[in-house]
Amino acid sequence: MVTAGAYVADVTPLEKRAAGFGIIGAAFGIGFIAGPTLGGLAANFGLRAPFWLAAGLCFANAVYGLFVLPESLPSEKRTEKIAWLRANPLGSLKLLRSHHELFGLAAVNLIAYVAHQSFGVYVFYTIYRYNWSTQTNAYSLALVGVVSVLVSMVLVKRAVARFGERTTLMLGLGCATVGFVLWAIAPNSAVFFLGIVFVSLWGLMSPASQALMSSRVRPDEQGELQGAINALRGLATLVGPILFSWVFAAFIVPGRQLPGAPWLLAASLLLVSLAVALPVTRQGAKTAQA
Are 212 and 281 in contact (CB under 8 A)? Predict the structure, then answer.
């Protein structure tokens, strides 16, 4: 995924880069829908069949990349030497400190990635609050995938063209905040499903943010930037699951019934992310105009 993001940055003009990152998000969403279906069908041929299928898909992808996909970065734009001290997750984070606006956008993404880890309590919450079955949870997550694909394939390009990357980023964060609040207070499944639509609009944020960040580094640093962004996701994964599972457990005990607490925490984090993004991206817009 890191290399795919760098590839998009290499071959896409700056003004179309957000839409390019949106296509990657759409591909991920399609996989989120098709993967479990294919795995379930393959399981009819044996317990190991889904893993053989996954291995075959990965191998086909590798063959395609090796023999069909052209190189994206011309030799004149490549770095002559690999800086091994930076060729690791922690080392790549140094790039994010090289520019004030880049560091600010990194903070925006890190906070949002932590909020995204709230999905770890999704099934526990729906079972506890609405007594959903496994099938209902599967349908709801499929809806998340479908809406995410539509957002990435259709809305990202149009939103960036209409409002610009900065406003699109804000829209994504704002819609997700509304969605999490709806999840927290939803009295029934219908309202919760409405919240799914708002949370899925969060997909507007990531392509716009990546486009803004990629415009602030050199062509030979695009891969390192994508690695640094992925390192932020990894840091969020270290913190988020523990944090949100603890909050959920703490607020379903007798006398302290607030099962929607994880979603309220996620909404609060996104508000913080939005508060950081406003001044950082405003300064970036002024710099771009200058």
Answer: yes
Residue count of the chain: 290
Predicted TM-score (pTM) of the model is 0.79
Residue 46 vs residue 255, higher pLDDT: 46
Yes or no: say if 249 and 238 are a contact pair by the CB < 8 Å rule: no
Residue closest to 229 by CA, chosen among 24, 62, 11: 24
SS3 137: helix
Residue 234 to residue 110: CA distance in whole angstroms: 9
Mapping DSSP to helix (H, G, I), strand (E, B) and coil, where does residue 227 land?
helix
Closest CA to 88 of 224, 179, 189: 224
Backbone angles phi, psi at 70, to 5 degrees: -75, 155
Nearest to 57 by CA among 31, 92, 87, 83: 31
Residue 142 corresponds to which tokens in the numbers above? Answer: 């499929």
In angstroms, the Cα distances linking 102 to 139, 161, 232 are 38, 22, 13
Domain limits of the chain? 2-285
Q: Which residue has the tokens 């392509």?
A: 207
CATH topology of domain 2-285: Growth Hormone; Chain: A; (1.20.1250)
DSSP H helices, the chain, are 2-11, 17-42, 49-67, 89-92, 100-116, 122-130, 134-150, 156-163, 165-185, 189-200, 205-214, 222-250, 261-289
Confidence of residue 77 (pLDDT cuts 50, 70, 90): low
The one-letter amino acid code at 29 reads G
End-to-end CA distance of the chain: 33
Q: Are 117 and 241 in contact (CB under 8 A)?
A: yes
Most confident of the ranges 81-90, 249-258, 278-287:
249-258
Collapse the DSSP code of 251 into the 3-class scheme (helix H, G, I; strand E, B; otherwise coil) and give the result. coil
Token pair recorded at residue 260: 């929607």
Q: How buried is 88 (Cβ within 10 angstroms: 0-12 exposed, 13-18 middle, 19+ buried)?
A: exposed
> Once rounded to an integer, what is the mean pLDDT over residues 257-276?
96
